[in-house]
Fold this sequence. Notes:
CATH architecture: 3-Layer(aba) Sandwich
Mean pLDDT: 93
Number of strands: 10
Largest sheet: 10 strands, mixed
Helix content: 40-55%
CATH superfamily: Bacterial extracellular solute-binding protein, family 7
Order of helices and strands: HEHEHEHHHEHEHEHEHEEHHEHH
Radius of gyration: 22 Å
Amino acid sequence: MKKFIALVLLALSIPALATAAAKKDPLAAWKPKFDPSGAEFTYILSNISHPVIEGVAAGYRIRDAVWEQTNGRIYVDFRPLAQLGGEKDVISKLKIGAVQGMLSSSVAAANVSDKLGIVNLPYVIDTFDKLDTFRNTPELWEPFANGAQKQGLLVADVTGYGPYGWATTTPVKTIADAKNVNFRIAEAPVNTDSYKAWGLKFTVMPWPDVPQALQTGVITGLDHTAIVCNITKKFTIAKNFTELNYAQGLFVHLVNKRWLNKLPKDLQETFLNVIKEESENTRALTRKQHDAQVAKAKEAGVEFHKLSDADIDELKKQAEPILEEWSKKIGPEYLTKVREALK
C-alpha cells in the first residue's frame, strides 16, 4: 500500500514539476542554437515585453542574424521580459553603457528625447502605411534617428505592437461614453498631455500594476493595442475595444553610440544593416499579427467599436494645442514636414 501511494504521488507530481519548470524558464523556446561564449563583442539588448509579440521577437531574430553575418564575432544577448528592470531604469543604464541596446516602448522613448515623442503624438503617425512612409523617407526618418544623439544614443530602427485604442469594461462608442471611463495610461508625457486635452479621466500606472487594478475596478479602461491586450489576457476582463487608431505602438531600438563606435567599421555596417532588415521584416509581421489577434479576440467574444467620424474629428481638434506645444520641443519645421508628408 505504501508503495502504491508513493507511485500515485509521484505520478501526480510529474505534471506539476513540468509546469513549474516551464514557469521557471518562459524563454526556453528562444535559447540560441549556438555557443556564444567565443564572441568578440557582446551587445546586451533589453525589452520589457514577451517575445510572443512580433515586435519583441525581433530581438531574437536580430541575435541570430547578427551572429551568422558576423561569423560569430558579435553576440546579441537579448533580455526581454524586463529582466534588466523597468524602462526608466534601463534607459539610465543604457546612457552609461551598462546596457548597450534597448527596444524601448515609444511611450517611454519620449522620456529620452522630446524629438522621439513625435511617434506618439495623436493622429500623426497613426497607421501602418504612414509608419512605413515615415521610416522609408530619409528627410522624415533621419532627424528622428538622430534625435537622441545628445544622450549618446542612436535610433537604429523601430518595430511595433500595433495601433492604439481603448480596451474597456463597458462599450465605448462615443466620446460621451469615454467620459465615464478611468483609463490607465503609460508613464509618458505625450500621453498625459493628450488625455488632459481630451478631457478624459486617466490614471498613470506602471504596466505590472494593471491586472489587479483592472480586476478591482480601480481602472475601467486601458490605452493600449489589440495585440497586447489579447496576448496578455486583458480582454478577459475588458471585453470591449474601441479602434481609436491614434498612434502606432512602437519599440524604438536605441543603441549606445560609444559601444557602437568601438566596433570595427565592417562590423558596425553589418550590425546596423541586420537591424534594418529584421526590423522591416518585423513591421510586416506585426501587420499580420494585428489582424490575427483581432480575429481571435472577436472569436472569444470581445466586441470591437469605432467612434464616428465626427467624434474622431473632435479628438483631432482637441489635440491641436498639444501638437502646437510639442512642436516647440520637437521642432516646428520638423513636425510640420512630417504632418504634411503623411496627410
